[in-house]
């Protein structure tokens, strides 16, 4: 037992992987928060269901909905708490990934609800995420895309899935955001924290002693960090001023800074994540110390990378092979693995622990230990 283990009143029992569970929770001040797990539709995702949270805060408020195609599942889940979309006054999206905002357009059509999201959400939802970046924005990005083109066969897309995705992106462009959230905003008892890194528009929401973390902090799995972003010119010119320099919204350093920010909140907060609250037939309650665990995971990876670079120059492909097992580098997995390594190399470049030549050769600079100081600074507990 840890102090975040709480007795949840089970309103509906679901599957071992979390699908279908419906819970009633209480904050320290006695406020009721409903948590329902919406199974992913047509997805072979390892993250499991998306948890949608519902509570009263100047009217019924929902956080996150689920994947495209899961609207009926969401409605059935809401019926277990005695609500329907028509009862909801506003929907807050933790970030613009399809497993969170996948059914927003149906929800808005079926209700009077407003849509609230981080101020970056609206301008970015007009684009398909993988089409916005200028793939030659840095030596590492150029290398990543060169190797990917050379080594990865384009996958034969499953037609029904790409059709669902297409509809999702088209519908998403048309949704209207009523409130553009910024760090520090407060609405009645709900506080907004901007926590970019996993996604540029990722927010955490604090209510009493609960923190709804979206994909910023997850139990069991380490959320995928973004790598740095250079927007294509044609897109950049259409973006608002605050997005023109995206360095504070993307990248591993940005992500780790945002984890440090949550640690500063202090130990009394309970993390309510968008995935894995329940898995393998048991609950995963945790506090902000989970943010520290995730920082340690990345620190270990950085340690291994720096170790391998001592006395030996390397490049992106070799560094990736040195960190991941062969089985994790097959097909499109290679891209995911390399982009994760790019994010870590970018951080080591920022802390001046490595240099990268224009030919993509990577070597240690100085003692290669500056990053350790940076990380221990993040882990210092808050007031
Ligand atoms: Zn996500
Ligand atoms: Zn997610």
What are the salient characteristics of this protein?
binds zinc ion, 6-stranded mixed sheet, alpha+beta, single chain, Metallo-beta-lactamase, Chain A, 383 residues, Arc Repressor Mutant, subunit A
Report on this structure.
- There is one protein chain.
- The protein is globular.
- It is of the alpha+beta class and about 375 residues long.
- Helix 11 packs across helix 12 (about 335-350).
- It is about 35% helix and about 20% strand.
- The structure holds zinc ion (2 copies).
- The site of one zinc ion has 5 residues, from loops.
- One zinc ion (ZN) binds near residues 47, 97 and 274.
Question: How would you concisely characterize the structure shown here?
Answer:
This protein is α+β, with helices and mostly antiparallel strands.
CATH superfamily of the largest domain: Ribonuclease Z/Hydroxyacylglutathione hydrolase-like
Rg over CA atoms, rounded to whole Å, is: 21 Å
Low-confidence stretches: none
Bound ligands, named by name, code or SMILES: zinc ion
Number of strands: 18
Strand content: 15-25%
Main sheet summary: 8 strands, mixed
CATH architecture of the largest domain: 4-Layer Sandwich
Strand order of the largest sheet: 1-2-3-4-5-6-7-8
């Amino acid at each position: 037992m840890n102090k975040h283990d709480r007795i949840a009143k089970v309103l509906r029992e679901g599957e071992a992987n979390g699908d279908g569970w419906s819970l009633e929770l209480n904050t320290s001040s006695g406020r009721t928060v409903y948590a329902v797990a919406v199974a992913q539709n047509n997805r072979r995702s390892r993250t499991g269901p998306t948890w949608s949270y519902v509570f009263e805060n100047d009217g019924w408020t929902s956080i996150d909905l689920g994947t495209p195609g899961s609207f009926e599942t969401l409605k059935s889940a809401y019926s277990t708490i005695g609500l329907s979309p028509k009862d909801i006054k506003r929907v807050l999206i933790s970030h613009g990934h399809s497993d969170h905002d996948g059914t927003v357009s149906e929800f808005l059509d079926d209700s009077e609800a407003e849509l609230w999201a981080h101020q970056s959400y609206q301008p970015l939802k007009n684009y398909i995420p993988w089409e916005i970046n200028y793939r030659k924005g840095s030596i590492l990005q150029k290398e990543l895309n060169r190797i990917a083109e050379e080594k990865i066969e384009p996958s034969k897309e499953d037609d029904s899935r790409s059709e669902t995705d297409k509809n999702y992106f088209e519908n998403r462009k048309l949704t209207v955001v009523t409130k553009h959230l910024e760090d520090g905003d407060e609405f009645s008892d709900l506080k907004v924290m901007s926590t970019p890194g996993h996604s540029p528009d990722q927010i955490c929401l604090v209510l009493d002693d609960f923190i709804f973390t979206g994909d910023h902090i997850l139990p069991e799995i380490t959320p995928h960090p973004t790598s740095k972003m250079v927007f294509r010119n044609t897109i950049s010119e259409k973006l608002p001023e605050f997005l023109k320099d995206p360095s504070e919204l993307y990248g591993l350093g940005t992500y780790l800074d945002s984890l440090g920010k949550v640690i500063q909140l202090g130990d009394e907060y309970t993390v309510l994540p968008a995935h894995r609250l329940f898995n393998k037939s048991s609950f995963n309650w945790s506090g902000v110390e989970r943010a520290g665990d995730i920082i340690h995971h990345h620190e270990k990876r950085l340690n291994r990378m720096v170790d391998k670079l001592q006395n030996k120059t390397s490049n992106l492909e070799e560094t990736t092979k040195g960190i991941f097992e062969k089985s994790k580098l097959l097909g499109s997995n290679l891209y995911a693995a390399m982009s994760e390594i790019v994010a870590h190399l970018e951080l080591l470049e920022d802390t001046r622990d490595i240099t990268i030549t224009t030919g993509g050769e990577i070597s240690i600079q100085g003692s290669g230990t500056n990053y350790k100081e940076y990380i221990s600074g993040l882990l210092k507990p808050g007031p």
